[in-house]
Amino acid sequence: MSSTMSRARERALRKELLRARAAVERQSLRKSTCDVVHDISPAALVRSVVPRSLSSGKGAGAALMQGARFLSRYPFLVSTLSGLFSGRGRSRTRLLKAGVGVVAAWQMVKLLKPGQGSPDAS
Questions:
Q1: How far apart are CA 48 and CA 57, in angstroms?
Q2: Do the Cβ atoms of 68 and 46 come closer than 8 Å?
Q3: CB burial class (10 A; 0-12, 13-18, 19+) of residue 68?
Q4: Which of 13, 17, 18, 48 is 20 to 30 A from 86 via CA?
Q5: Model pTM above 0.85
């Protein structure tokens, strides 16, 4: 009778070990998926193309990185601006498009300046 009890305990122990192993594998898969999602984000793709010397500091590379972060945060701006600037129009609509472009550029410059225009800057 004790041998059947030990067999039952052994089976239960094996089941628990398999459950623990499956949980660890699920957690590993979840972490790997999150890593892949982070690696293919627009900011990460731009960061992989731009040399590190350009992306550090306050040069054009840093502005490019901030712009990429801004556009990845608000993707509808890219589609709106491309829709505005694509297609033909009369001189009046071209003037309107140019005005919208100037306002958008002004807002981008305002947001990219450190300490100004960003609510999280202190």
A1: 17
A2: yes
A3: buried
A4: 48
A5: no
> How many alpha carbons lie under 13 Å from residue 120 in its C-beta half-sphere?
2
Element (H, E) at 59: none
As a whole number of angstroms, the distance between CA 72 and CA 68 comes to: 6
Per-residue pLDDT tens for 19-70?
999 999 999 999 999 988 888 887 777 777 766 655 556 666 667 777 777 7
What b-and-e string marks burial along 24-54, b requiring 16 or more CB atoms within 10 Å of the CB? eeeeeeeeeeeeeeeeeeebeebbeebeeee
| Cβ partners under 8 Å of residue 4, min gap 6 | none
Give residues with Cβ within 8 angstroms of 115, minimum separation 6: 121
- Burial of 92: CB neighbours in 10 Å, binned 0-12, 13-18, 19+: exposed
